[in-house]
Amino acid sequence: MNHLFTYTLRLADNALVLGQRLSEWTGHGPFLEEDLALTNIALDTFGTATSLMEYAAKVEDKGRDADALAYRRNEREFTNILLVEQANGDYAKTILRQVLVDAYNVLFYTELAKSKDETIAGIAQKAIKEVSYHYRHSSSWVIRFGDGTEESHNKIQDALNELWRFTGELFEQDETELTLIKQGIAVDSKAFQSKWEKQLDELFAKATIKKPETVFMQTGGRKGIHTEHLGYMLSEMQVLPRMLPDAKW
Question: What is the CATH number of the domain that holds 22?
C-alpha cells in the first residue's frame, strides 16, 4: 500500500470538497463583503487542494494528473472526512462547519509544516497564513451569531448540535497515518486534540452556545463510506469534465 499517496489524497479530498461547498455561496452571500470573503476562502482552499492533488498524482505515478483525481473518481473513491461534505444549509450552519475545520487546520498545518516530506511541508507552510485568517473570520461569525438575536443564537446552536457528531473523524488514525507518523511525515492529530477542544470551548462560551454532551460520532469517510450529500455534490462538480473529457481550459 502506498501510504504517502493515500495520506496526501485524503488531505487533498478534504480541501477539494470543502472548497466546493464554500464556492456554492458565490453570489449568494448575506451581503457583498461576506460574499467576497467566503469566495476568497474557497479559492484559498482550492489552492491547497490543487497542490495536494498534484503531489498525490506524482506520488502515485500511474499516469493520472490532478484533474483526473478530482473529476474521474466516484463517490466511494473519495476519502474526505464526512464533516466537509455536509450541505451548506443556512449561513450559520456553513459558518459552524467552517469554524470546526478552521480550528483544526490551524493546529494541523502548523505541525504538518514540520514534516520530513519537503513537498508536504512546503504546502503546509503556505496554508498556515491562509487558515489562520479563515479561523479569525469564522470564529468572529460564531460569536456574532451566538451572542446576537434569539433567532441567530438558535441557528448557530442548532448547527452545532447537528455537526458535532462528525468531529470525531478529525482525530481518527489508521495504519497509513501511524506508519507515516513514525516516519516523521504525517501529523499525530491526537497530540493536539485537547488543545483544539479547549479552543472551541472558549469560543463557544463567548458565543453563549454549548456543544452536545453525548454524541455518537459518525465516521467512515476515509474508507469511502459517505453521507448522501457527497454524491449529489460530485455530480454537479464533475458533470462538465465528464461530458467533455478532452476539453482544454
Answer: 1.20.1260.10
